[in-house]
């Protein structure tokens, strides 16, 4: 059963519950739930009075789950608040469902949560349809079915309405579950970022401790709610009343901030849970991997709390209705529109300082630390509902649920920029011994694919992060990648142009009219083609006119302006006035300025960012252009293909993986491609030389003989491919040669007619248990790993994703100019993606080489590895921990 035992879930009001499979030990709890229903709820559940056999029904609901039955329950504070169960109908793929929810908890979305988890369990057992009967007057349950987001049908004839729900889902389901997630998360995280009251535990009476700093910041922030401190002996600290214990507090605080040593922090967390505290921030370090850390995790589960940390900087919000600074930052940041989620407290401190220095402000800062509970995903949902936050910044060292992260980030990035620092690039694990795909699908490649598909603006350092934040804060996004460079110092202009081209930007071709106007305006020695060099002798007002001309050129999407002061004048003094109100993107460069990036002002307002180096401006502009291009992409762009026989593919994979995990035989791998509709060169398999000779007799021309040998990864490089073989005697000799070469490791040979190899490409797939399947494309053949010209995206691929992969190679322009069939290769990528999402057991796939020709493409060699995987519903709502 795919439903995890005791997964933490968020109810619609932000309450934390537990959902888990039911078993015989829950029979009494199920019975209590049913007998506790009100009269009208009993009528709706049983279409009449409570049956005398309700005890038998309860035992049936709570029996051990299997492929014919499963029940799930939602528990609040240890009490069963709702149940849902299915019973398979005969030998069909259809199951009847029923549910019951405690009347006092009905408005919290429990029924919907239970149906989501029940559907996940049913899909894992091959059930694709739920059926039920509901009384016509039971509007609440009918609303649950309609709001679920899955395709459904209700027969409105008579007093009892039959309902059918299809579990395959459609385009509406992700939107429906995302909306529920967003509502629940906003209610839940309000305990952390908009609490009515706060207690700080672990405050020293004198400055110098984290707890004292947290309390001082909290008091100074103007937090409007009640504040108390837990201290064993003090009566008050910083004017705040103290209590000797959590139990002795004058009220139950909504938020607790814990700044104690590890063991004492665990004690405090348990006391807070028992008192009913809704959320906690654990500043304390040294907990992860210790019994004290385990106790904190258990307290979070047992008491339904939300937790930030441990080992964190704290949380901060500048919401004017509830300002809150529960951090130990040295200085309070400015209020603003930038939301920050960071695993590293040090990065949080550096960002807060840097942004304040630029005059930029923060809407909220959450330091997640060791992420026992609240993660980047939670905060993406929070910011989706927070209109004060116009830019989101992430520093993530790990992903708990990257597939959910990708969906949430993509939804958020449609409305505001989302920026992230790439981390974890130094220790990439290469598995070259496994396959070409494994060699390419490193953690870094997978992470970058996730960021690219989600529309995240990714950078490599915190300094670059600040650079890009300044650019997106003060300038509009460019409409394209065509850039003009204008400078009064030729060297700075050349450096800027080189940097732009390195970043993948295009140097714009200025129109003849623009060139002529520049020639009339500037000295004869000026360079009037892009990059434009006005020369150092041009006075500021003429430089401003030149910038006007370049900005008015329809072929220019953005301008990088590099200026230096001279004895004639300083062109930098006119930039702000020219740039003000301009719709195009303009970034300034001031070589030698003290700050790496600084605001450029006009009439007291910031009009653009000014950088100390042309390379920095080019990097910022390139990231802005990439984001603008992502926004302009169609949001689906799926490719319509002939249907893959899903049932046959699943049956094939299940049968093979049940025999043994690992690499399929060449014959079996070929069968899988055939079922998926992937074109493969005609192939025969021979176990011995007699069979090889029999196959050869039916071939009119030369053929290739390839070894199927234990441990042979790269057939060509390993001496396992013989080309140009002819006739039965040639097949016999080839088999004997390979047998002599590989000995007992030789399991057989594949025989294929010699084909026009066209342009050799590589298509691969590697499925990561956490990130899911990654589709890799590149140049193929023997040297594919050596050349390493590849692009990758996470499945499922839309048609737009496939196009980005095809154009993502360094050699893409030359490759597609060579005349090969792009549409056929694109279809191959989408088919591989669909196969990966259909078959979770597909761990690795190598199609190398793929012969691409002017018309069509065909796979010449394939390797497939299957592994047992428990399919996970990508839309199942659950919290970490």
Automatic annotation (TrEMBL):
Domain of life, source organism: Bacteria
Keyword Transferase set for record: yes
Pfam families assigned: Acetyltransf_1, ATP-grasp_5, CoA_binding_2, Ligase_CoA_2, Succ_CoA_lig
Domain N-acetyltransferase, chain residue ranges per copy: 17-180
Keywords for this protein: Transferase
GO terms, molecular function: acetate-CoA ligase (ADP-forming) activity; acyltransferase activity, transferring groups other than amino-acyl groups; ATP binding
Xref: InterPro entries: Acyl_CoA_acyltransferase, ATP_grasp_subdomain_1, CoA-bd, GNAT_dom, Ligase_CoA_dom, NAD(P)-bd_dom_sf, Succ_CoA_lig_flav_dom, Succinyl-CoA_synth-like
Record keyword Phosphoprotein present: no
Cross-referenced PROSITE patterns: GNAT
Residue ranges the record marks as coiled coil: none
Name of the molecule in the record: GNAT family N-acetyltransferase
Organism annotation: Amycolatopsis panacis
């Amino acid at each position: 059963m795919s439903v995890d035992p005791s997964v933490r879930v968020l109810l619609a009001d932000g309450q934390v519950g537990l959902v888990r499979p039911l078993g015989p030990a829950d029979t009494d709890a199920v019975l209590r739930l049913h007998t506790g229903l009100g009269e009208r709820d009993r009528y709706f559940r049983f279409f009449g009075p409570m049956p005398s056999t309700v005890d038998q029904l309860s035992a049936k609901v709570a029996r051990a789950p299997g492929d014919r039955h499963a029940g799930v329950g939602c528990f609040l504070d240890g009490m069963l608040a709702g149940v849902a169960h299915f019973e398979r109908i005969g030998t069909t793929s259809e199951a009847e469902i029923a549910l019951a929810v405690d009347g006092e908890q009905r408005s919290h979305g429990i029924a919907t949560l239970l149906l989501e988890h029940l559907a996940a369990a049913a899909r894992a057992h091959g059930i694709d349809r739920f059926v039920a009967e509901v009384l016509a007057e039971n509007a609440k349950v009918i609303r649950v079915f309609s709001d679920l987001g899955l395709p459904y049908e209700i027969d409105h004839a008579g007093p009892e309405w039959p309902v059918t729900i299809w579990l395959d889902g459609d385009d509406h389901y992700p939107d429906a579950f995302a909306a529920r997630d967003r509502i629940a998360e906003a209610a839940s995280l309000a305990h952390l970022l908009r609490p009515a009251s706060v207690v700080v535990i672990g405050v020293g009476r004198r400055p110098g401790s984290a707890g004292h700093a947290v309390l001082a910041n909290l008091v100074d922030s103007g937090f409007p709610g009640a504040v108390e401190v837990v201290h064993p002996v003090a009566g008050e600290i910083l004017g705040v009343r103290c209590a000797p214990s959590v139990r002795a507090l004058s009220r139950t605080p909504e938020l607790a901030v814990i700044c104690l040593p590890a063991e004492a922090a665990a004690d405090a967390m348990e006391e807070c849970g028992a008192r009913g505290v809704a959320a906690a921030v654990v500043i304390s370090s040294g907990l992860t991997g210790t019994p004290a850390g385990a106790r904190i995790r258990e307290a979070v589960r047992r008491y339904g709390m939300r937790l930030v940390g441990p080992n964190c900087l704290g949380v901060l919000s500048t919401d004017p209705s509830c300002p809150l600074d529960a951090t130990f930052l040295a200085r309070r940041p400015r209020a603003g529109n930038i939301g920050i989620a960071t695993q590293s407290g040090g990065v949080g401190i550096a960002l807060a300082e840097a942004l304040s220095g630029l005059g930029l402000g923060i809407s909220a800062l959450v330091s997640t630390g060791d992420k026992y509970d609240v993660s980047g995903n939670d905060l993406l949902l929070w910011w989706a509902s927070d209109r004060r936050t116009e830019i989101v910044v992430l520093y993530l060292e790990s992903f708990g649920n990257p597939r959910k992260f990708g969906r949430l980030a993509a939804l958020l990035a449609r409305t505001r920029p989302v920026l992230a620092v790439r981390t974890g690039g130094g220790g990439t694990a290469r598995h070259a011994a496994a396959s070409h795909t494994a060699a390419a699908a490193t953690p870094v490649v997978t992470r970058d694919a996730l960021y690219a598909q989600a529309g995240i603006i990714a950078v490599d350092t915190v300094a670059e992060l600040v650079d890009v934040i300044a650019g997106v804060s003060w300038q509009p996004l460019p409409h394209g990648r065509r850039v003009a460079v204008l400078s009064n110092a030729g060297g700075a202009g050349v450096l800027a142009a080189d940097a732009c081209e390195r970043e993948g930007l295009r140097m714009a071709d200025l129109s003849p009219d623009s060139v002529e106007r520049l020639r009339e305006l500037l000295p004869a020695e000026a360079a009037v083609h892009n990059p434009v060099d006005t020369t150092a002798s041009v006075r500021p007002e003429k430089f401003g006119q030149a910038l006007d001309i370049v900005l008015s050129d329809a072929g220019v999407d953005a301008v990088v302006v590099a200026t230096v002061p001279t004895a004639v004048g300083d062109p930098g003094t006119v930039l702000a006035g020219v740039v003000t109100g301009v719709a195009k993107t303009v970034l300034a460069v001031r070589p030698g300025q003290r700050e790496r990036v600084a605001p450029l002002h006009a009439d007291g307002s910031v009009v653009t960012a000014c950088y100390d180096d042309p390379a920095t401006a080019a990097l910022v502009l390139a990231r802005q252009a990439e984001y603008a291009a992502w926004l302009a992409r169609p949001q689906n762009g799926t490719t319509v293909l002939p249907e893959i026989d899903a049932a046959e593919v699943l049956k094939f994979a299940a049968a093979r993986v049940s025999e043994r995990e690992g690499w399929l035989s060449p014959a079996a791998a070929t069968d899988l491609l055939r079922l998926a509709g992937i074109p493969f060169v005609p192939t025969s398999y021979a176990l011995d030389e007699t069979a090889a000779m029999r196959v050869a007799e039916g071939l009119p021309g030369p053929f290739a003989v390839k070894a199927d040998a234990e441990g042979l990864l790269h057939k060509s490089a390993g001496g396992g491919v013989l080309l140009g073989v002819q006739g039965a005697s040639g097949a016999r000799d080839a088999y004997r040669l390979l047998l002599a070469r590989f000995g007992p490791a030789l399991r057989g040979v594949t025989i294929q007619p010699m084909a026009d190899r066209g342009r050799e490409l590589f298509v691969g797939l590697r499925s990561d248990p956490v990130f899911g399947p990654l589709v890799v494309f590149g140049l193929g053949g023997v040297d594919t790993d050596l050349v390493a010209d590849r692009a990758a995206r996470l499945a499922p691929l839309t048609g737009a994703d496939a196009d980005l992969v095809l154009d993502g190679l360094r050699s893409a322009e030359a490759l597609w100019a060579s005349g090969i069939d792009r549409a056929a290769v694109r279809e191959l990528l989408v088919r591989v993606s669909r196969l990966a999402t259909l078959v979770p057991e597909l761990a690795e796939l190598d199609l190398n080489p793929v012969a691409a020709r002017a018309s069509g493409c065909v796979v010449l060699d394939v390797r497939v590895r299957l592994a047992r995987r428990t399919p996970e519903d990508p839309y199942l709502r659950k919290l970490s921990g």
